[in-house]
Automatic annotation (TrEMBL):
Domain DUF4440: 9-109
Alphabetized SUPFAM superfamilies for the sequence: NTF2-like (SSF54427)
Cited Gene3D superfamilies: 3.10.450.50
Entry protein name: DUF4440 domain-containing protein
Domain of life: Bacteria
One Pfam family matching this protein: DUF4440
Length: 117
């Protein structure tokens, strides 16, 4: 079940990343989300939107869930391998750890941490 939850969250994230829609990506995060991409971290949706707005058009993300844990009824921890593909440079493989939290009837990302392989 936790894998299904994380798949739903990451499928929606991937669709917004692939479409280069930074505001839509940011809406998938909690208001107080801790976000650590490959640049200095930020807190909140504005930082997430700015990060993805700065990414090149044509960038896409493919992920594979490696592990999930249901930490509480409304909290899921996930670990995934992600490959960011670009139109003008080699694919970038990374590790992604996320914490998804149920907020009302939606699951949102409360913590996002990327590290290079």
């Amino acid at each position: 079940m936790s894998t299904d939850i994380l798949s739903t969250v990451l499928d929606t994230w991937k669709a917004a990343v692939d479409a280069h829609e930074p505001e839509r990506v940011a809406e998938l995060f909690t208001e107080d989300a801790i976000f650590q991409g490959l640049h200095p971290y930020s807190v909140g949706r504005a930082g997430v939107a700015a990060y993805y707005d700065a990414q090149p058009r044509g960038m896409t993300a493919d992920y594979r869930i490696v592990e999930t844990r249901r930490l509480a009824e409304d909290v899921v921890l996930g670990y995934a391998g992600v490959e960011f593909a670009f139109t003008d440079r080699p694919t970038l493989p990374v590790h992604l750890s996320v914490v998804a939290r149920r907020t009302g009837d939606r699951w949102l990302i409360a913590h996002y941490q990327v590290s290079r392989l």
